[in-house]
């Protein structure tokens, strides 16, 4: 899996191409390991395809979002769809006429995306409500909550806008962060009456009313001698369980934070690049080589690990009942037991990569592919 990098300030953007070329040269090495072969199995958790919907190629930083029984998603070409999550039937759509770079946020009333022209756009019932030019590029989907639209920008600042008219309400700048940033979704979620955001390697709790910090917890410490080695951005999705928010710092560590007290519970070294999932007992994540690990929620000790899916370009996992669901770059969704990682089922799509962690909507397991097809399966 390869990752795009960007500078947080426009005046240094000239160095970005050189960084990307260097990374591309490394990723094309002839010694790149082959994906683990798929093993035969007996499906002990059978499922059938319930429906599928063609969206079109998803936005580069596309993360479908569930609000009640509705699902919102955005295509790279600027189509925003809201579907019934049970049947896949269309509730409404909007054609923005401009490419989307990050999205989508949705609260059941207002959807929000960021365009490649760096505009924050709000849509309701298929109609654009307002557009606002952002001061910095954004690589994470907006968060729509409490009649506000929150944006985590590439410079690691967080801003709030009035969902009714787009008026900017406040901006909280990051401090002491590295100039190089990841072009992939970060951490931005609501926990009770606190807005929780990843600002560099720190998880910050903000007052959603005025943006003032309530607490700040470092999850990882800077290491290395160059900018790439010191890149520690928190990557989404975050796992929220029992008042805790568990997050991954890019290729360096995972940690769990008590979001009510703003206190670090534990942190452990970990070499992964996508987010986490959790239940009341464990935190689950994949390392960069495809190793799946389960850490104890209480103390971060490794409970089990599996090498079943090595080098398959895995998505972040999803907790779904007694199982985990993980997508791969070859278009499969693997369903494994939470207790030990045993393979329970393997679901096939169109052969293109699963672009983000699967979603659970009622009895439906959902996954979006790189070709822009949203699949839904139900247990038999």
Automatic annotation (TrEMBL):
Q: What is its main location?
A: membrane
Q: Where is the signal peptide?
A: 1-24
The biological process GO terms on file are: Gram-negative-bacterium-type cell outer membrane assembly; protein insertion into membrane
Q: Which residues form the Pyrrolo-quinoline quinone repeat domain?
A: 77-305
Swiss-Prot/TrEMBL keywords: Cell outer membrane, Lipoprotein, Membrane, Palmitate, Signal
Pfam families found in the cross-reference section: PQQ_2
Q: Which terms in the GO cellular component ontology are assigned?
A: cell outer membrane
Top-rank taxon of the source lineage equals Bacteria
Q: Which PANTHER family match?
A: CELL SURFACE PROTEIN, OUTER MEMBRANE PROTEIN ASSEMBLY FACTOR BAMB
Q: Which family does the record assign? A: Belongs to the BamB family.
Subunit info here reads: Part of the Bam complex.
Instruction: Write down the HAMAP family for this protein, in alphabetical order.
Output: OM_assembly_BamB
By what name is this protein known? Outer membrane protein assembly factor BamB
Protein source organism? Malikia spinosa
